[in-house]
Amino acid sequence: MLWTTVSLSFEIFTKKLRSDKEMCGIFGCILKNGSAAPIIHAALKRLEYRGYDSVGEATIENGRLFIKKDAGKIDVVHSIRNLDDLPGRIGIGHTRWATHGAPLQVNAHPHFGCSDPPTIAVIHNGIIENFAEIKKDLEDKGHIFRSKTDTEIIAHLIEENLGQGDLKSAVSSSVERLQGSYAIAVISAKEPDKIICARNESPLVLGIADNAFYFASDTPAFLPLTNKVVFVENGELVTLNDEGFEIKKLVDGKPVVRKSRVVDWTHEMAEKQGYPHFMLKEIHEQPRCLRDTLRLQDKYLELLTTFLDRARDVAMVACGTSYHACLAASYMFSKLSFLATHPVIASEFTEQHGKSVNIDSTILAVSQSGETADTLAAVETARQRAATILGLTNVVGSTLTRVSRVYIGQQSGPEIGVAATKTFTSQLSVLSQLAIRLAKKRGKISQEEIDLLDEKIEKIPSIVERIVKTQEEKVKTLARKYKDNQCFFFLGRGISYATALEGRLKLMEIAYVPSIAFPAGESKHGPISLVELGFPVIFICPPDETRKTLIGNIMEMKARGASIIAICEEGDEEIIGMVDDYVEVTRGIPEILSPIPYVVPLQLFAYYMAIEKQCDPDMPRNLAKSVTVK
Ligand code: AGP
């Protein structure tokens, strides 16, 4: 097959990759000769930033499958099982970020069907939304499942379909039934000379070398081996064999001709998919994360809602950004479900509530890492007093998931930047979904309001996408204009107070700018004494019930010479006409969902202020991603 390569502009290439969202890393190779296992192992190490709670490999030799997999980081599993020691020149590998099923060996990929010894091995990156119904169908046909993962159903589905044809047609008819996102790869002991891949939404790229062919979730996996890349698009099926690769459309089997492209990236650039920092990449990938957060498993949302519905008093316990999510949630639960909750800063919980928490208490602990010592200590205080512990975390298998009676994983994928961005908006999405479910269960708001919320929450990912696309340049300009200011106010009313707190934390922690956030109504009770000519005050002003009084707060700041920056609704001429600068957010967002889109300009502002001040947004001084000490 003739390879025509075209050099690829940096911009085009980044656009190709920027639709990606980390969840897991997949890789595989077909070598003309030599051993595949060490190549797979090294490639998975280069994909570790995509997920790192379990790892596995499968190779083929003499018509036999060889599999090694376990829970744990790659280096730990390698030290125990030696991931380089598998025979064969063809193989696949997977590094996992658990969403369905805790990080246990049984849930690690590859997965296989019923046959023993296994004849097919499957690896997958993505979320299968309809896995429960497919699993039921297959169980009714006698399939026995080992794991709790959504991926395993793909292996059994292919095994079921193998009866009607070869591996390629079995994979093709299997993925037709899948709903959700997937990038999968399959090898079979019965057709040992090929690898079949298929893609929908989750990323998949091919690497073309003189004596080997590769596939991966992302180019860093094989960049040291080849810089010739072929992108696989949604709805395409790939067959890799000794001669090369063949791409077909899943919908009609039509062949696809696609040029390979040369990528002149460093490994580190590729990990960030062209973004200068992980933080900016993670701000940009929020739409994808928010889509994934809308694919949470119904049964866990329902279970959590039931516990909240029965609760007599609910303390939401968290630190930092996660606390801001809890504060926003307290408005959601109160306004939608008439559920009284109280957000508590975890490090204060034992002092504040240690004596009063009891068997009738419900604790909702929110922690992206699931390992924050202050949060776990608060949970332990409550557990010792027989309170019910509920958990919301991004890390399935973290300590918080083990100490919670019920938990839900927010499915944001690994967040590398120390500053929480995509995990914050995902937390807000999960919490608003819970508040809406509880509202339905309790019947406290009109069906019309519920229909509007159901409609708008589905649109949040594209609303965030539009804000990033249309407002990023403006925010960059504002950062340049205000880069020398020494202190900022962040003000909001109602649920926007939580948004103000989060915007302030972002600016402080990555641009090291002292900032103060408080409910706008508090200004006259003291803080306004700080305001002098040109003092920057950022107002979060969605058109909700607080708007009128907020305008009064804007006027009182203006009267003292403050420079006003408003985060307001698109085309809100009244606000725009009274402020010095503004950033616009899409119209028609319901109040309880407003923190998600309204925080995005504040995340970008903090990021670009850090750039203006030559700070490293990914690794701010004195901070760690997960504070596992009290
Ligand atoms: C957020 O940008 C900070 N990195 C920090 O406040 C963080 O939110 C806090 O440490 C809580 O972390 P957790 O969500 O992992 O518990």
Q: Summary?
A:
With 630 residues, the chain is an alpha/beta fold.
Describe it.
The structure is a single chain. The protein has 630 residues and is α/β, with parallel strands linked by helices. It folds into two domains: 5-274, Glutamine Phosphoribosylpyrophosphate, subunit 1, domain 1, CATH 3.60.20; 282-612, Rossmann fold (3-Layer(aba) Sandwich). Helix 19 links the parallel strand 24 (563-569) and strand 25. Helix 15 (422-442) packs antiparallel against helix 16 (447-482) and helix 15 (422-442) packs antiparallel against helix 20.
Give the secondary structure arrangement, pairings included.
Elements: E1 5-7, H1 10-18, E2 25-31, H2 36-46, E3 54-61, E4 64-71, H3 74-81, E5 90-96, E6 120-128, H4 131-140, H5 152-161, H6 167-175, E7 180-188, E8 191-200, E9 205-208, E10 212-216, E11 228-231, E12 236-241, E13 244-249, E14 255-256, E15 260-262, H7 267-271, H8 278-284, H9 286-293, H10 298-310, E16 313-318, H11 320-337, E17 341-345, H12 346-353, E18 361-367, H13 373-384, E19 388-393, H14 399-403, E20 406-409, H15 422-442, H16 447-482, E21 488-492, H17 496-511, E22 515-519, E23 536-541, H18 547-558, E24 563-569, H19 573-576, E25 581-585, H20 595-612
Parallel strand pairs: 1-15, 16-17, 16-18, 18-19, 19-20, 21-22, 21-23, 23-24, 24-25
Antiparallel strand pairs: 2-5, 2-10, 3-4, 3-5, 6-7, 7-8, 8-12, 9-10, 9-11, 11-15, 12-13, 13-14
Helix pairs in contact: 4-5, 5-6, 9-15, 9-16, 10-15, 11-15, 11-17, 12-13, 15-16, 15-20, 16-20, 17-20
The protein binds 2-deoxy-2-amino glucitol-6-phosphate.
2-deoxy-2-amino glucitol-6-phosphate (AGP) binds next to α11.
